[in-house]
Structure formats: structure tokens, C-alpha cells
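Usage

Read records sequentially. Each one opens with the input sequence:
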Amino acid sequence: MSDSLTPRQPLGSLSVGNIVSAAVVLFRSNLKAYLGIAFRAILWSFFPVLAVGIVFGLFFALFGSVFVTPAGTVAIGRFLLLTLISVLIWIFCFPKYLVNAALISRLAFNELINQPESVSQARRYLLPRQWSFFRISIQIFFSLVGIYFGLGLCYGLLIAISGVIGNILNNQFLGGLIVAIVAIVGLLAFIFLLIWFFSRWLISEVPLAVEEDIDGADSIDRSWRLTKNSVVRIQLIVLVAFLVTIPVIAVLGYLPQIIMMSLQPGSILFWIVYFFSFVMSFSGNLFILPFWQAIKAVIYYDLRIRKEGLDLQIRER
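and closes with the structure output:
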């Protein structure tokens, strides 16, 4: 692919490698704009952490001694109040992060279909939908948590049943073999099902970002329908994209942590390296976020071509 993604004709369906390449080209061609949006997104995600740290730091500095005394009931009330304030701060900030992340996907998708728009235009379109993005993230989070615990419960029951069967057979070797087989197969099934659900909801916020007249629930359903029979393909894309980001993660994420392990905790050098580690981690997220949002946009574009003939619709238009 060339560096320009404003062709007269649509790109057509893409291979796994071309999807990742398209995301790289989109990111490189719009580096300044995407990094600026990602910077705002990361700041919105970081602000609640800072605010919560300040809130709880002040609480324990002012009321920590009261908290462990019999008169601590008053402090507990204040503690719960500050917890509520912290949650409200997070609820206010997190939708802002989601809007900026979705903004990158919208800009990338519109460039793919040769209908580019400015950052300000796209932001004005998405801001009224911020609570719908919030609903999507919350709904998917609790769905995945419920699926995780449900699968974990089933896995535990299978292990228990296989153990009972082993005892009934009254053969230690055969019983242990049955438990081992069930444990391995069950674990693989557990991982596969989690990946399957994750893949079906990977692009759940993209339809809301680019389509009109839909809400958060419609966007999730849209993702579910488009990704049908495409789980393996999506996971291959995710794998290739992850391999592309490994150098950034290794240098900006893990290298400072490795250096810190060899330093004396609490020393001046330790805190200097810790500060640079934070800056480098922030920089890594600054590059990784827009890349993954571009990946989602290209996946959505490709799925719509394959399932709905989007390229034909563009040609007709």
C-alpha cells in the first residue's frame, strides 16, 4: 500500500497482513493528528488515577489515626464519601477517554472510504455519544467478567467430576490420567472461549463511532453480527499486530522495569529511573493506542466489505 489512503476506488477486501499494513500506513500518514488525540485520551485516563491518589492520600494523612481507633466510625463515613467521589471522578473522565479513542477509529475509517473529515468535525459528532461509549465498555466488561467466572465454575466442576470418576475406578494411575486430560482440555477450551467472546466484541465501539442512528446496544449487536465466522481471522490479525508492537512494548515498557530491579528501592537513582519509566510507559501508550484503534477501523472496514459489499456501495456513490 502507498502512504496515501485517499484512493479514487475503495481498497477492497484485505488479507491479514494487509490489514495490519493499512493500519500502519494510516498511523504514519496521520501521525501528528493521531498522537494529539491519543495524548488527550491518555491524559483523561490518567487523571482519575492521580485524583484518586490525592484523595486517598489526604484521607489517610488526615484521618489515618482515627481510622484504627474506636472513634473510627466517623472516618469510615468520610472514607466511603471519598470513595464515592473517586468513582464519580472516574465516571466523568472515562467517557472522555473512550471518545478520543473512538475518534481515531472514525477518522481512520472515513479515510479508508475516501470521506475524510477534520478532527474537530469528528469530535463534535462523537461527543454527544460519550455515554453510549461508556455503556458499551461497562456492558462488555461485566459480560466478560460473568463469562470468566462462569467458565471458571464449569472448569472446576469438570475437574471435580473427573476426580470422582478416578476414585470410582479405584485406579490411581488411570484416575490421575483422566484428571490431567480433563484439566488440559478444559483449560484450552476455557482460553478458546474467552478469546472467542473477546473477538466478537473487539470492534464493538467502532459502529457507534462511524454509523448514524444507532446507540450503544445496537453497536454491540453490530459487532456481534459482523464478526460471525471471523474469529480465527481476527485473532490472526491481533497476533500480527501484537508482534508489530513488541519492540515498542519491550523498549518503553519492560526495559525500564528490568533496570529498576537492579536498583536499591528508595534510592535517588531508583526514583529517577522510576520517573523515566513512567514517561517511557506514557510514550509507549501514546503510540500503541492509535495503532490499535486504526487496526479496529480497518477490521471493521474489511468485515463490511466481506459481509455487506461496502466497496460496491462506495463505487455506486
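Summary fields computed downstream for this record:
- The first helix runs from residue 16 to 29.
- The two ends are 23 Å apart (CA to CA).
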